[in-house]
């Protein structure tokens, strides 16, 4: 796989350093813009109180962003050995996050059931987002000897778990502007994700003239996964399954 990458794409471009920093900054902004008001509303008593697992879930996801930032900083400072050693944390964090996302969704789904905050069918988004992250991040970890694929897959994995952050502040206005339906539900949840994925693809087409085949496959898988999550959300059969998972 490394030989394919070397033939088809230059491993580095002078704009790469800025690209990944910009994407990380947009991700951080999207998450803060979405979750800070949400946390404040919960603290003010405007929603069902958070279960303790929510704080564990948030700590791991924040830890992942900190790890990604540290790894990028180490590469920029050419401290490759420390980058590789620190990257072993991902071996623990990826499976932990794969479990924490669905677990948190079920716990909070049970608390919110029958309240204005409740949406049992949203478990489709929670489960498939966890699958998306796990598959793409694990692939990036396995391909760490291929710098072109590794950097992009780890960034893509992170992008695909930002839907909840972007959706909290982009979703409402989009829904009001465009109405309802599965396409609107997709944009409501994943418009920010889609913009970042397209931006990464356009960047590689501009700077390399092509996409790394494994990265293109991951992009396709991720966007399709998001689409399936939205499709399931509106299925009556899924509502029955989701209610059962929440104990109803």
Structure notes:
The protein has one domain. The chain is globular, with a radius of gyration of 19 Å. Helix content is 79%, strand content 0%. It has eleven helices and no strands. The chain has 248 residues and is an all-alpha fold. The N terminus is likely disordered.
When the domains are counted, the total is: 1
Dominant shape: globular
Q: How far is the N terminus from the C terminus?
A: 48 Å
State Rg: 19 Å
Average residue-wise pLDDT? 89
Main sheet record: none
What oligomeric assembly is this protein in? single chain
Poorly predicted segments: 1-7
Count of strand segments? 0
Structural class: mainly alpha
Series of secondary-structure elements, N-terminal to C-terminal = HHHHHHHHHHH
Q: Helicity level, as a percent range?
A: over 70%
Number of helices: 11
Strand content: under 5%
Tags for this model:
single chain, 248 residues, mainly alpha, 11 helices, 0% strand, globular
Describe the structure concisely for a colleague.
This protein has helices spanning 2-8, 16-43, 52-76, 80-86, 89-112, 123-142, 147-159, 163-178, 182-207, 213-233, 236-245. The chain is mainly alpha-helical and 248 residues long.
Furnish the topology, listing elements before pairings.
Elements (H helix, E strand, L loop, with lengths): L1 H7 L7 H28 L8 H25 L3 H7 L2 H24 L10 H20 L4 H13 L3 H16 L3 H26 L5 H21 L2 H10 L3
Helix pairs in contact: 2-3, 2-8, 3-4, 3-5, 5-6, 6-7, 6-10, 7-10, 8-9, 9-10
């Amino acid at each position: 796989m490394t030989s394919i990458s070397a033939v088809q794409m230059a491993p580095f471009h002078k704009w790469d350093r800025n690209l990944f920093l910009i994407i990380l900054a947009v991700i951080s902004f999207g998450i803060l813009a979405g979750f800070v008001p949400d946390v404040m509303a919960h603290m003010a008593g405007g929603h069902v109180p958070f279960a303790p697992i929510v704080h564990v879930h948030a700590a791991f996801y924040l830890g992942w962003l900190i790890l990604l930032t540290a790894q990028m900083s180490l590469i920029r400072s050419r401290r490759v050995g420390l980058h590789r050693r620190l990257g072993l944390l991902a071996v623990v964090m990826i499976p932990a996050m794969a479990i924490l996302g669905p677990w948190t969704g079920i716990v909070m789904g049970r608390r919110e059931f029958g309240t204005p905050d409740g949406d049992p069918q949203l478990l489709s988004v929670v489960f498939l987002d966890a699958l998306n992250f796990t598959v793409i991040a694990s692939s990036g970890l396995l391909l760490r000897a291929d710098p072109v694929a590794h950097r992009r897959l780890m960034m893509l994995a992170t992008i695909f778990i930002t839907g909840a952050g972007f959706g909290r502040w982009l979703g409402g206005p989009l829904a009001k502007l465009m109405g309802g339906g599965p396409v609107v539900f997709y944009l409501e949840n994943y418009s920010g994700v889609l913009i970042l994925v397209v931006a990464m693809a356009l960047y590689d087409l501009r700077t390399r003239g092509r996409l790394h085949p494994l990265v293109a496959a991951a992009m396709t898988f991720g966007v399709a996964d998001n689409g399936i999550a939205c499709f399931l959300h509106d299925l009556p059969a899924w509502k029955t399954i989701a209610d059962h998972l929440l104990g109803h």
